[in-house]
Structure formats: C-alpha cells, structure tokens
Amino acid sequence: MPKFRSHAPGAASASEQLRTVVAGRRLSPYAVSKLADLSPSVVTRFLKGERSLSLVSFDRIFLALGLRLAEPARRAQAGRAGKPVP
C-alpha cells in the first residue's frame, strides 16, 4: 500500500510534522489513541504512513498533544514596511 507523503518539494506536510512530533515524544500509537480518544488501529496506520486521517481525527490528536499552529517568520521586504508579505 502506498504511503501518504507531501508532494511539495522541501516542505513537510502537516501529517509528516505530526508523525515527527509523536516519534520525538516517543509515544506509542496506543498512547496517542487513548489521549485523542481514537481507535488504536486508525492511529497505527496513520503513523506508519499507510493511511491519512480525517480532519476531525487530526484535530483530536493535535489538541490532545497540546500542539499549536505557527506560521514561519517572514523576512521584511525593504521599502514595503507595513505591507503584508505575499
């Protein structure tokens, strides 16, 4: 079965980042499933890259682990102070 991976070169998808956080915290799929109140088989298959998660399941894991979204800092463009960077 194909693994789900980002198609953007050099960029990690949100799913890949979530897998990295879980691995970095050394959490078992079972522990994650209990924290997020999800089926252990769903979490196991996601962490192995065998399937994706629904947005609801992703949110449950995200919140259970106390994660937050952070936009990467952007360099200010000279002469465009106060204007949003595209």
Secondary structure blueprint with pairings:
Blueprint: H1 14-24, H2 29-36, H3 40-47, H4 55-64
CATH class of one domain, named: Mainly Alpha
Q: What profile does the largest beta sheet have?
A: none
Assign an overall shape.
Answer: elongated
The end-to-end span amounts to 38 Å
Helix-strand topology string: HHHH
Strand content: under 5%
Instruction: Indicate the percent of residues in helices.
Output: 40-55%
The mean pLDDT is 85
Q: What Rg do the Cα atoms give? A: 16 Å
CATH level-four homologous superfamily name of one domain = lambda repressor-like DNA-binding domains
Instruction: Give me the CATH architecture of one domain, please.
Output: Orthogonal Bundle
Number of helices in the DSSP assignment: 4
Which class of secondary structure composition applies to the elements? mainly alpha
Number of strand segments: 0
Unreliable segments (pLDDT under 50, ≥5 consecutive)? none
CATH topology of one domain: 434 Repressor (Amino-terminal Domain)
Compose a concise summary of this entry:
The protein has 86 residues and is mainly alpha-helical. The protein has four helices and no strands.
Describe this entry's structure for a reader:
This protein is an all-alpha fold and 86 residues long. The chain has a domain at 14-64: 434 Repressor (Amino-terminal Domain) (Orthogonal Bundle). The chain contains 4 helices and no strands.
Keywords:
86 residues; 434 Repressor (Amino-terminal Domain)
